[in-house]
Amino acid sequence: MRIVCKFGGSSLASYREFKKVKKILNKDKDRDVVVVSAMGKNHIYHKKVTDELIDLFETKDAKIFYRLKKRYSLLVKKTKANIDLEYEFNLLERRLRDNDYDKVVAFGEYLCAKIFASYLNFEFVDATKLIYLDSNKNLNESKTKQAFERLVEKHNIVIPGFYGSTNGKDIVLLNRGGSDFSGAIACKYLGGECYENYSDVDGVYLCNPKIIKNKSHEKEISLVKLQRLVENGTQLLNLDCIKFLNQCKIVVKLKNTFAPYGRYTNVQKEQTHNNFVFSGFAYNDLSYFCVVCNKSIFKRYNDKYIFDIEYIEEDVFTFKSKKEDFKRVYRSLYRFLKKYKKKGLV
After folding, report:
1. Which of these three, 175, 200, 225, is where a domain ends?
2. Domain shared by 150 and 16, yes or no
């Protein structure tokens, strides 16, 4: 069974994380296709590489350029990757001179994939030769399928996420978080039976564990419910990726790089009926919430601080509150749903 793995920026933030990912891949030889994001933040570098590259494009600040070069130099030294950094950063300089935003920003995924492939002794395959987009950044499925066909029999390959091409030469970025989409595309067209998407959380929780520490983990959730949560602020998976997976017969698992053998969330194409999950975010003067919960249960939720309640579809609701009431509503909703989840009500 072929397993395609996508690792996000937090999973590849430094050499320490590279070693963790290598152990995960070595544990199961079926994990023979890897899609990577650009390096994320770590204890030394407090900005994601993608954000650094955006700043570099906008400012042309030499300090950012040399900070990136220093970061990659350290990584190449520790991984002992066979990479000519002078050549690669000359390439980045040319992209800056060409004033091509997409080429500059995609450099993070491109170089991370090259270094990681060398570290693993895998083959690097550039996404410009695999993922084809039209002028509106929509996936050209026929050209993409044809491009992937030459790799179906190959094993142990690394592909950079987040970008593709219109003609096999130029570079076109996907939407932010697009490495998720890249991984799903690779899984479908390389005949993968399972798509493992790794980040720094154990999949889906009752609510964001970074806002409220909670142990209310969801073992499974449907693509439809996950899509509604993402549309309303949750950053669990790229929206284009979710829509694409709706067309596929692929097992999807949301896993944690830092606890790879612990709990995770299975994403089901079919509806699931036992979820208690919500997301919320504040924007301008309002807070926006999306709740996955049985309708009869949600009707019992009474909070004077919420308004504009809408029933979106089966077991999915949205509502608003004032921005200053965000934390109050977030905590009250968490306590309410946690109580009914403990009772095992659906």
Report:
1. 200
2. yes
Cα 182 from Cα 37, distance rounded (Å): 10
Contacts of residue 336, Cβ cutoff 8 Å, sequence gap at least 6: 300, 301
Shared domain check, 140 and 55: yes
End-to-end CA distance of the chain: 34
248 domain-assigned: no
Q: Which residues contact 111 (CB under 8 A, 6 or more apart)?
A: 72, 83, 88
Q: What is the pLDDT of residues 166-211, one digit of tens each?
A: 998 899 999 989 999 999 999 999 999 999 999 999 998 888 887 8
How much is the pTM? 0.91
Question: 150: domain CATH number?
Answer: 3.40.1160.10
C-beta neighbour count of 308 within 10 angstroms: 10
Q: How many domains does the chain have?
A: 2
Q: Please, what is the average pLDDT of the chain?
A: 92
> Is 234 inside a domain boundary?
no
Indicate whether 111 belongs to any domain: yes
Which pLDDT value is given to residue 346?
Answer: 44
pLDDT of residue 273: 57
Question: Of residues 259 and 313, which shows the higher confidence score?
Answer: 259
Q: Looking at 200, 233, 266, which one is the last position of a domain?
A: 200
Range of the domain at 324: 277-342
Q: Do 144 and 131 contact (CB within 8 A), yes or no?
A: yes
Name which residue leads in pLDDT, 53 or 317.
Answer: 53
Per the DSSP assignment, residues forming a β-bridge with 123 are 157
